[in-house]
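User: Quick sanity check before I run a bigger batch. Here is a single chain. Can you write out its predicted 3D structure?
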Amino acid sequence: MSYPLTLDRYFATPRLSGLLLSPDGRRLVVAVSRPGPEANEMRTALWQVDPDGTAAPRRLTRSSAGESGAAFARDGSLLFTSTRPDPDSKADPDKKIAALWSLPPDGGEARLLLAPEGGIEGVAAARSADSIAFGALLHPHATSIDDDAERAKARKEAGVSALLFEDYPIRYWDHWLAPRRQRIFSAVVSADAEARLDGKDLTGDPGPAFLEADFDISPDGATVVTSWFDWSNLPATPADLVTLDVESGVRHRLTRGDAYYSHPVFSPDGRFLAAVRTTFGSPESAAAGTVWLVDLATGTGRDLTPALDLWPESPVWAHDSSAVFFTADRLGWVAAFRVDVPDGRLTCLVSEGALSNLCPAPDGVAIYALRATMAAPARIVRFAARGEDQTPVELDRSIDDGGTAGRGRVERLTAQAADGTAVGSWLVLPPEASPEHPAPLVVFAHGGPIGSWSGWHWRWNPHLLAERGYAVLMPDPAISIGYGQRMVERGWGHWGEAPYTDILSALDAALTRPDLDATRTALAGGSFGGYMANWVAGQTDRFRAIVTHASLWDLRPFHGTTDTGADWEHEMGDPYSQPELYDRQSPAAHIGSIKTPMLVIHGERDFRVPLSEALTLWTDLRRHGVSARFLYFPDENHWILKPNNSRLWYETVLAFLDEHVLGKEWLRPALL
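Assistant: Done. Predicted structure follows.
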């Protein structure tokens, strides 16, 4: 029996992420997030799940701070980060340090390994040694973790919060890249339960080389590999593969500034590296991705998936080093693939569902993963390491989500663009939609711009709208991935052209259905989807309402205020010598044509699409007499993540749609 997906039920649903399999294959660990006891917070705990489905799930960690970022050490101990207080020190309520902890394989109390003042930024453990690598944030001239703490103390006592920058970029997503920057350390984890880690700094101050923790440690613990950004020659912004010798500290660059290399992982036998290689692209040619293999004996690299016309993500190795498994967007899903290293044979293991966190078992037979669908959130599943187009099996005894699923009917649609290209979409219909009772339709434009609609979405969930009687169309227009490189090329650098007309083609095809009401439509989108919402507003008045979240409005000033603006020149070109390329694609150029009521939403801490974009849009709308509202979140970034804020987001969006699409009276959310 299905139950209405109310906001209360939706936010109470456990959210699964970060699935891991222990080295012996006997334990699955997954991060489970739920609303915490404090207002407007999510709390994450680590749970153990039996791969055989025999034993009941067991909660491993419990603290007021929550836990995340888990990894298994060689002996089966579980490493994780948490801001829980140090039990051996006087609690400081003003300090919340993301420290590194270790939980013994047989359970018991977790012990604190290391608590640098700036926090831990990810951890990787060696397969065959008691060695780990971890990221930590330190002041640029700090000589050690202890010295960093002294520098922080001096700043605090002086009441100084000023930041000095000498590199580019200076901020990233939602934080300033100062006063601390990430370094990579190595350490040996002692069996002594009282011993603390003594980390060895492998990088010194690397400048802005590490914008995200993206590294691995070799099976023998002797080498660390990482992605290393170089921002010294803008607009070139390569991220090379670099190895760090743990003993000598010698750094060796494996690639030569020709692409972005990410997600590097050592093969279990230590002979190879697998990574994702993504080309820069140019205004004339779109970026493209592949799985890259590096032979560590010779230093040579090769494309491991030359025939793959998709964008791969998150490679992991088979335990015998014979194959690499990865995921990739494919035809509205996120499929799981296997590529055999000796001959490059490619197999699509699972083609339906949105797969993530692939965990190959040591026996080489099974793979565990998280799998979501358009109708239900992620669950733990199992499938074979060989065999095409399998149907994964959900584990019998897993995390109980109360059977949460949307009641909307999910269908897959295909339309034809003006140039004959097939445009795929997901359609979610409310249960009562019929020719006798056609449903109003809301179009969701996806973010990215490199992206697609696939699987359950916690921030843009169509089923919450379906519960209110709306159908939701989720098209994948030009520049979407999962449909081959040509689909990306069609929209690359020309966002207002084929991506826009493809969305209209998908809409027109959907509205031929008798169970949809063509007279009551709206459009909504966030990030690139917000750009598209703004662009649509200036091109047509066919929609009754438009919701634009974290949206780009004027691309020329956006280039200078976004966190990594120089990176956009690979797609849009040089804004100094050819500003007309940016002007031509800016929705702001069409402000005089906007007639549709708009709801503008933005977070103060959004550095990817800065608040200035929303403020300019809001001013322009009011100056030109457009009916509009502005929902502002001072404590959110590019995404609305806090549960009560997210609830207000949905309440406001639904009230706005009800007002303009259904003609109901505007009901301002009570907390606003």
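Residues 410-661 form a domain with the Rossmann fold fold (CATH 3.40.50.1820).

User: Great, the batch can go ahead then.
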